[in-house]
Amino acid sequence: MWVLVLFDLPTETRKDRQVATRFRKSLLDDGFSMFQFSIYMRFCASRENADVHTRRVKKSLPKHGKVCIMQITDKQFGMIELFHGQKEIEPEKPSQQLELF
């Protein structure tokens, strides 16, 4: 499973920028990587693991702005067509993660 977090947060004031930065850092601390500036993604080994990370994102939601959390299968993610300019690029392969309990 892949968990994608898409967001559009206000950045007009210094306080808004701090809140947006704090939200992005919370995603990075939870193992997400930046796909684009306002799109972060994380590979999860199972739906249950994806649900855990989805709940963590929900706990750190800012008061203002729009946030979308989407879960897609690895097969669906593999069908993404990515382009850098007009050149097609390969999607990122899931990293091997070791989870300790």
From TrEMBL:
NCBIfam families documented for this protein: cas2
Q: Name one GO molecular function term.
A: metal ion binding
- Family according to the record: Belongs to the CRISPR-associated endoribonuclease Cas2 protein family.
Keyword field contains Hydrolase: yes
Read off the InterPro entries from this record: CRISPR_associated_Cas2, Virulence_VapD/CRISPR_Cas2
Q: What does this protein do?
A: CRISPR (clustered regularly interspaced short palindromic repeat), is an adaptive immune system that provides protection against mobile genetic elements (viruses, transposable elements and conjugative plasmids). CRISPR clusters contain sequences complementary to antecedent mobile elements and target invading nucleic acids. CRISPR clusters are transcribed and processed into CRISPR RNA (crRNA). Functions as a ssRNA-specific endoribonuclease. Involved in the integration of spacer DNA into the CRISPR cassette.
What is the protein's quaternary organization?
Homodimer, forms a heterotetramer with a Cas1 homodimer.
Q: Which GO terms describe its biological process?
A: defense response to virus; maintenance of CRISPR repeat elements
Q: Any idea what this protein is called?
A: CRISPR-associated endoribonuclease Cas2
EC number per UniProt: 3.1.-.-
The opening ranks of the lineage are: Bacteria, Pseudomonadati, Bacteroidota, Flavobacteriia, Flavobacteriales
Q: What keywords does the record list, in alphabetical order?
A: Antiviral defense, Endonuclease, Hydrolase, Magnesium, Metal-binding, Nuclease
Which cofactor does the UniProt annotation name?
Answer: Mg(2+)
Annotated Mg(2+) binding sites: 8
Q: Name one Pfam family in it.
A: CRISPR_Cas2
Q: Which domain of life is it from?
A: Bacteria
Q: Which residues cross the membrane?
A: none
